[in-house]
Each structure stands twice: as C-alpha cells, then as structure tokens.
Amino acid sequence: MRVSPLFFATIVATAQTQTIPPPAPAPSFRIGTKLVEVDVVAVVTAKDKNGPAAGLTKTDFTLLDNGKPQEIAVFSVKASQPAGRPKSPLPLGIISNRVNRDGETLGSGTVVLLDQQNLPVNRQADAIGEIVRFVAGRRKQDRIGIYSLQKDGLLLVQDLTDNDELLRRAAQSLKPVAPQTCDSAGEDCPLRLALETKHAFEAIARHLANVPGRKSAIWITASFPLIINTPRVQYNFTEDMQAAARALSDAHIALYSVTVRGLTVGGRGIYPPGFNTMDLMAELTGGEVFINTNDIKGSIETAAEEGDLVYTLGFYPSQDEKAQDEKDGTSHKLKIEVARKGLSLRYRESYVAGKPQVAVDPKAMQQLLESSLDASQIELAAQAIPDNAHPGTYRVVVSVSLHDVQFQHEGPLWAGDLDVAYMVEGTEGFRVIKKKIEFHDDKFAAGVERGTLIEASITPEPAKGILRIAVQDQVTGAAGSVKVPFGKK
Fold first, then answer.
1. pLDDT for 416-427, tens place per residue?
2. Cα dihedral sign, 357-248-124-108
3. How many Cα atoms within 13 Å fall on the side-chain side of residue 175?
C-alpha cells in the first residue's frame, strides 16, 4: 500500500518566547468551584400573547440541582446582539477558527440543519421550499446558518450571517438528494446512520462552542427512533444521542426538531411513534419538538425568536457533593421554577459534574480533519508560508490559545497534552504529533496567557490546495481546527 502523499521534512513544536510581565498567581483548580451556567428561555403561554417574557429578575427563579435548592450566584439577561469585530483585522494570510475572513467574529444565531440523510426525497422538496420562504421573510437582525446532513456527511452550505444575498443564494442552492437507505446496505446500517447523525451534532457543537450566547439548532428531519430492531440485532441509540445532546448543551445550543410529515388526523394530540429521539434531545438541550404541523416556516421562526431574550442562571455545585461525583463526571438533574404565572420555561435539564478525563476516540481526529465545519473549542490561528530555500515546501505556523486546554498538576509542573494533526485535502492519510506543554507553578498563568506556537515544515504532493489542521486536548477531547490555503510563491 502506498504511504500517505503528505510528507513532513521536519516538525518542530516550541513555545513562543518573548518578554513578559511578572506572572500572576496560578489559577486554583478545586473540586466544587466550577460555575455551572444554565440558559433559560421564558415563553408566554397566554392565548392572546406570545413570545419571550421580559422583566424577570433573579428572585423570580428557583434552581434545584438533584432536588436541592441552589443559590443563584450569577444572573444575567441577554438580548440578541450583533456580531462583533476585533480591534484590528487579521493579517493577510492568517486563518482563524473563531474569526471569519472579513475579520468578524460570529454572533449568536440560529442554525438550520436539513437532514437529507434521514428524510425522503419528496419531503426534502417540501422542507427546502419552507427554508427558502423562511430566509426570504426573516427578520433583519436574525443571523442564520444553513447546514445539510447527507450520506457523504455534514455539509456547510452557509455559516452564520445576516447577509441577505448570501442566505438567499444558500437556501436556493439546496436540492433534494437521495437519502441513505438500509434496505440492502447491511445489518449495521442503522448504527452507521445513527453515529453519522451523532457526529454531525458534535461537529456543530464544536464549531459553535465559542459563539457567544444561546444558539438554536433547528433539525428538519423525519422520525428517528431510539431503538431499532433488525432480524438479528436490536440497536439502542440512547447513549449516543445523550452524548450528542451533552455536546450541544455544553456549547449553549438548544435543539429544536421539526418533522416534515404534514398534519395528521388528531393533530398534535396524537404523538406518532419514532419521535422519542427528538423529545430526548429537546429535554436535554432546552429546545422543543414540532410535530404534526404543516407550518415548517413558522416552526423555524418560533425557534429563532425564542433566542431573542435569554436569562442565564449560574451556580456553584454544593461543596458537600462527593469528590467522586466530580472525578467521574456524574450527571445531575436540573429543575428551574419561576414565580410568575403563565410562563413556559425551556432549559437544559441536566449537566455533568466536573470535567472527567475521557478516552479520546482514535477516529475523532479523522472526523475533525474531514469535517466541513471548523472546531472552535480551542482557538487557533494558522498560516502556510512558501519556503523559498526548499521549493515545494511550506512553513506552517499554528498559534494555539491555551485558555481552553485542561492542565493538570504534576509535581512542580502544570502539564497539558495536545495532539496536532495535518492533512492535505484530496490526499490519503494524515500525520499526528504529540505536544506536551509544561509550566512551573510561577510561570503557569503567564504561559497560559501567552499561548504556544507549533511549527511544521510540510512538503505536500501536489504543492497546492488546502491544508487541514486539527488540535485536540487529550484530557477533555476539546478541539480546534482550521483550513489553510497553501500560499502562492
């Protein structure tokens, strides 16, 4: 078998060096001190009124963690805000996974995910028409992203933007495609489809993790049961969907499911089979399920509008919680009550205590490199510069923010472990290097603030196209990725 056509002449990983001010005291990592934030949408349920409820204060809310009342230590009210711009644009040739090419950071918004993998062709046409209608009549302040899940994976049609022309063009570019069917695709086909759906949600979560505020993801799909029986195997996707929901809720994304099946006799009161997945995801992320409705456009509008006003409640888990809870990542049940009558609350109904070590899936890096969405849990900026002394070779410099890397105390050192991967689009294989970052106690705070540079000399074949770079924290699984064009000589 041919070796990967991506060759590395040398790989040098070094921490950036520069004059720095005296370091601040090293941060303290103690069990039970992590702030847990819960985004809450309060919706008016009166027949003559609708929309988000304004004017609520901290004293209006009661928050329970596993049935125990908690002090609300942090309270904020967030209305939709425009995307922000950095003080200065990125230098020419620098690519970042948190800033777009115009130098604009993504603002909070709504993502429409058209599930063309699990939706029949005739229903896709109906859904696309409704998406086009929604985009044409959307509110000017709405920032919308459009993604498509197809049998080849998750596709980025248009990232979050409030640009009318880009959104219209993106919506009109959607076309029905044949979905993946399991009629003759093998016994493991249901499992494959479920995992691809899970990976799509996780990719969206990684991509939007550092977009500020509560986001809405609108999943336009057909039925997707948690349990599927085949002649020889029963598949239970509960744990997979719970993991996907946790990824979304950790990124402050509420999942709204819109089923494309039309209005059935009996209306919303008759709950059809196969929709328990949508219920589970909505409960765990603070979203909603729209079933038995012909108004897909209206459902999308409702989901988008519910993000207009968000109450964020923050609390510190009780100090008397067992240390094992924090170490192992035990799930805690959340319940929030409001004193004002006539309101319905949407919020994630659980959280995982602590940040447990995870066994990082060896396939995760390949998924990061092949995804159409950049991961933004770890902030990266990168550039590929032609090396004039070595024709066909590029010097690739990646700047990694360490604020989102998990460090652990090892004797007198704080240590973090990263995997760094490089892949040229259109070629086979990729190369991974391991990067250990260590700081003494008195240098830790300054080192994290400074970040680190990772350099590589790369000779691709052919010397053109796009270089994909991914960085993953081996403790938490958090990741960042970017796509960098090879510079012109």
1. 999 999 998 888
2. negative
3. 3
**Element (H or E) spanning 138, and its range?**
none
Please enumerate in sequence order all residues whose Cβ is within 8 A of that of 61, keeping only pairs 6 or more positions apart, or say none: 40, 72, 75, 311, 313, 336, 337, 338, 339
Mean pLDDT, the chain, as a whole number? 81
What angle (nearest 5°) sits at the alpha carbon of residue 287, between those of residues 358 and 175? 95
**Bridging pattern class, strands 61-65 and 253-259:** unpaired
Tokens of 304: 């988008």
Q: Which residue has the higher pLDDT, 9 or 337?
A: 337
Q: What is the pLDDT of residue 316?
A: 87
Pair of tokens at residue 487: 């510079």
Q: How far apart are CA 285 and CA 346, in angstroms?
A: 9
Q: What digits encode the pLDDT tens for the residues 233-260?
A: 888 889 999 999 999 999 999 999 998 8
Decide: 225 and 271 in contact? Cβ < 8 Å: no
Let me know: does 21 contact 443? Beta carbons within 8 Å: no
The position carrying tokens 């959280």 is: 351
Task: Determine the Cα–Cα distance for residues 335 and 277; give it in Å rounded to an integer.
Answer: 21
What the chain holds in terms of domains, given with CATH numbers, is 7-28+361-485 (2.60.40.150), 36-80+312-352 (no CATH), 95-307 (3.40.50.410)
State residue 50's pLDDT score: 73
3-state secondary structure 234-283: EEECHHHHHHHHHHHHHCCEEEEEEECCCCCCCHHHCCCCCCHHHHHHHH
Distance CA 60, CA 54 (A): 12
Cis amide prior to 462 (ω within 30 degrees): yes
Extract the tokens encoding 276.
């328990």
Tokens of 486: 């090879």
- Three-state secondary structure call for residue 197: helix
Contacts of 173 (CB under 8 A, 6+ apart): 157
Closest C-alpha to 8, from 332, 387, 444, 276: 387
Q: Which of 72, 73, 146, 148 is nearest to 117 (CA)?
A: 148
Q: Is the pTM of this model over 0.90?
A: no
Give exposure, 118-145, as e/b (b: 16+ Cβ within 10 Å).
bbbeebbebbbebbbbbbeebeeebbbb
Other CB atoms within 10 A of residue 87 CB: 5
Question: pLDDT band for position 185 (50/70/90)?
Answer: low
CA dihedral (302, 171, 117, 468) positive or negative: negative
Token pair for residue 314? 């923050």
Contact, 180 vs 193, CB < 8 A?
yes
Question: Which of the 8 DSSP states describes residue 202?
Answer: H
Q: Which two tokens stand for residue 421?
A: 């991967």
Residues 6+ apart with CB under 8 A from 119: 127, 179, 220, 221, 222, 260
